Amino acid sequence: MADTARDPPPDRTDFHEVEDGEDLFPEPSAATPESQPASLSAVDISTNANGPKQDSFFDDDNEDLFAEATEEVSLDSPERDVLLSDGPSPAITPITPPTSVITPRIGHTHDDMFTHSSFDEIEEEEGGDSFDIHISVSDPEKIGDGMNAYMAYKVTTKSSMSLFKQRDFAVKRRFSDFLGLHSKLASKYLHIGYIVPPAPEKSIVGMTKVKVGKEDQSSNEFVEKRRSALERYLMRTVKHPILLKDPDVLQFLESTELPRAVNTQALSSAGILRMVNKAADAVNKMTIKMNESDAWFEEKQQHFENLDLQLKKLHASVESLVCHRKELSVNTAQFAKSAAMLGNSEDHTALSRALSQLAEVEEKIDQLHQDQANADLYLFSELLGDYVRLIGAVKGVFDHRMKTWQKWQDSQMLLQKKREAEAKLQFTNKPDKLQQAKDEIKEEIEELEGKVQQGERDFEQISKTIRKEVSRFEKERVKDFKMIIVKYLESLVQTQQQLIKYWEAFLPEAKAIS
Amino acid sequence: MMQEGLDDGPDFLSEEDRGPRAVNVDLEMDATLQVDISDALSERDKVKFTVHTKSTLPNFKQNEFSVVRQHEEFIWLHDSFVENEDYAGYIIPPAPPRPDFDASREKLQKLGEGEGSMTKEEFTKMKQELEATTLLSVRGKNKKEKLEDFFKNVVKSADGVLVAGVKDVDDFFEHEKTFLLEYHNRVKDASAKCDRMIRSHKNAADDMNRIASSLYTLGTQDSTDLCKFFLKVSELFEKTRKIEARVAADEDLKLADLLKYYLRESQAAKDLLYRRSRGLVDYENANKALDKARAKNRDVLQAETNQQLCCHKFEKISESAKQELIDFKTRRVAAFRKNLVELAELELKHAKGNLQLLQSCVGILKGNT
């Protein structure tokens, strides 16, 4: 049905359609060298799949495309800052397969690079600027008093990348600044399929305690938890090659003054709007019935659902462990005091001394439990919490794809209706108005055809982006889990080593009782 | 039936009734008398213990024999000693607390009910837990016994106040009184805090159990490199949790039980002092009565006899009490020494085992990364 000729697509930064064969998206462990260029067009429109399932290709173009894309990527390239926008797409198989062939469009696109190999390899190819950036969030400082008080954090960036003006610099930021950054990134990138790392959660209770000036164990822990979470948030954000180059991110890291992000407050009008939108989205999600003919997406969605469930369960168990370990620490300390008292009242000298030693050992052990509980929390528990939220973002991106599909389908249906209307026009009995009506409808149809094409392109694009993003995400996930869990286990090792030391010191004391 | 095999001689009987499991006190490896609980059989709401005795003493009809006794009978035995005036001068070993099978039974019930809803792993784990805790089921008092004790204590403390107020001429007993009053309270506190500490430890071990299960599920579901990783870490948690559970169980055995035992024994020692004080009061009253009788010159002989009796009783109690209290100290020191040494050795053993487990796992994981 789509047999109209296509106008050459406008000249914009574009990306290519990618052949989504199996090789393109290798399992994270396999690093497949590429020869799948995203290339455009001259597509064989014989397949009937919903997603790109192509079998033909244009090999000559491959090498060039690829090389070109490689060269063009320079970190300072202004094009990179521009939002990814739609490019021409070969009519790869929408539900109603078009029959025309479209001329290949070769533009440069950073996107191309991400269609294959790991980002690490890509970054090396970029020549000179390897991914070398380290951000730390430190020195939480309470500014102001009472309910208007807030915590300011120092954000220090150390990087040799040419992206930045300096190699080592710092700025002061407050929590709402981080939320503002995330909000901007989310509005720019989520709907086209990029997994934007979620910002740390708000906590009215936690913050109120800080504002009120309560300086106790729990409020200190709250600040430390937040500081650590903000640091992880920034590192995750800059690890994303696209987000790293976003001007908002650069501004956040570099500029001394940042306009206050007021719309991040939960109860502001923007906040309420967000809540309303979220609710609306939830309803919509239930009503969209997408014909998923791409098994990859179905499989991945199921995978993330399962992962979500399991991680939440694991997270709950680890939080419980943290809680019990803290209790253990407190109870051990109390026992230590009690044992000391018992030792004091014991009238046999040697036994009395041994009991005092026991009390000392238990006191040291209680500190050990406290330290271990912290490791449980900051390493293990927070990792899991982060990933539960990240998977929320992943699920969101899949939802956007569904919405994109829906939009495309809606345009399609409308076009269909208009065409039917056009056909009916032939039989109208008002000849004088006929030509006018015919012209009107023709215009509408043209417009809708454009929309349909755009819708299809958007859908293809978001599908492609998601595949890349998921691949990258999974790689990061594997790295993160391995690294942090090993670190956590090492903390357990340390605890045991200390325990051994303490009990070894006590044993002779116990034996000395006579 | 109840008398079978029992003899009234104080010496060997005082060894016999030291609780269903002689873990805290050193039963002398004496050929003349060895007693142990060779079996415990649980039936609905009662437990039957098999008391096995081996003795070369002539008092017994046979050299080796076993009888079946229930907890109430142990209590009966204890109370018989307490009520017997001849034993007034001894620290009568405290009666063993009623075995708390309620907790185990609750778990057993949960296990049965949950069979359908739990995963296979969870079920097996719960079963293992149950077996481990049933070992240590002789714990705590049930509600009824606690209530009885409460009333007993109310009566005693009223008297105790009366008696404690009288300062003793004898330095030894004065010191012992002060010492025991304070010691008993401190042991009570230490025992309670120790129990709380061990409870937290067990809770943490339970969490590790759940963590192991979740990790296992994650390992079976994951399609990335992480699947092997998760399975290995799950295995580690499973093993380390077993060790942690053993640590808690050993602390329970070597420390908590020790403190509980000495809580009860120090009470028994206090009871002895109390009986001696009563004897003293009786003696002093008898003296006063004698003086009165002499003054009135009436019933003098009776008063004299009574006074002599009271005097004799009091002196007998005092003499035996002194020795008992000295022995108590010796036993206490020995028991603490043994248990603290064993505690430290076990803690070390478990920590070393745990360390090796963790290090080996970290080594493997790092090697694969």
TrEMBL record, chain A:
The keyword Protein transport applies. Its main location: other. Residues 1-18 have a biased composition (Basic and acidic residues). Pfam families: PX (PF00787), Vps5 (PF09325). Residues 131-260 form the PX domain. One of its GO terms (cellular component) is lamellipodium. Residues 1-60 are annotated as: Disordered. The keyword Protein biosynthesis does not apply. GO terms for biological process: early endosome to Golgi transport; protein transport. Residues 431-465 form a coiled coil. Gene3D superfamilies: Arfaptin homology (AH) domain/BAR domain, Phox-like domain. GO terms for molecular function: phosphatidylinositol binding. Keywords: Acetylation, Cell projection, Coiled coil, Endosome, Membrane, Phosphoprotein, Protein transport, Transport. Residues 32-53 have a biased composition (Polar residues). It is a peripheral membrane protein. It is found in: Cell projection, Lamellipodium; Early endosome membrane. Belongs to the sorting nexin family. PANTHER family: SORTING NEXIN, SORTING NEXIN-2. Involved in several stages of intracellular trafficking. Interacts with membranes containing phosphatidylinositol 3-phosphate (PtdIns(3P)) or phosphatidylinositol 3,5-bisphosphate (PtdIns(3,5)P2). Acts in part as component of the retromer membrane-deforming SNX-BAR subcomplex. The SNX-BAR retromer mediates retrograde transport of cargo proteins from endosomes to the trans-Golgi network (TGN) and is involved in endosome-to-plasma membrane transport for cargo protein recycling. This is Sorting nexin-2. It comes from Poecilia reticulata.
